[in-house]
Write a structure and sequence with these properties.
28% helix, 2 helices, globular, alpha+beta
Length: 78
C-alpha cells in the first residue's frame, strides 16, 4: 500500500516534534523539507540518516512503502 504525505510528516514529527516539516508528492515520488534543532552539529549525511531512521523502515529496499524521497534539511536560525 502506498504511503501518504501526511503519514511521512507524522513519522518525522513523532521523532522530531518541534521540527518544521513540509512534505509533498504524487504518491510515488516525494520531497520533504525539514528544519529541526536535532540537526545541530550533524553533517548533511547524518541529518538525512536521522530522517530515514524516523521513517521506521518505510524505505526498506524494494519492499518498502516509500521508494523516492528527496530531502532538504537545515538547522533553524538562532
Amino acid at each position: 500500500m502506498p504511503i501518504s504525505t501526511s503519514e511521512i510528516e507524522a513519522l518525522i514529527k513523532t521523532a522530531m516534534p518541534e521540527a518544521r516539516v513540509d512534505v509533498s508528492g504524487d504518491g510515488v515520488h516525494f520531497a520533504a523539507s525539514i528544519e529541526a534543532a536535532e540537526f545541530e552539529g550533524l553533517n548533511r549525511v547524518e541529518q538525512h540518516q536521522l530522517v530515514y531512521s524516523a521513517l521506521k523502515g518505510k524505505m526498506a529496499g524494494s519492499s518498502g512503502e516509500l521508494h523516492a524521497l528527496a530531502l532538504t534539511t537545515k538547522v533553524p536560525s538562532k
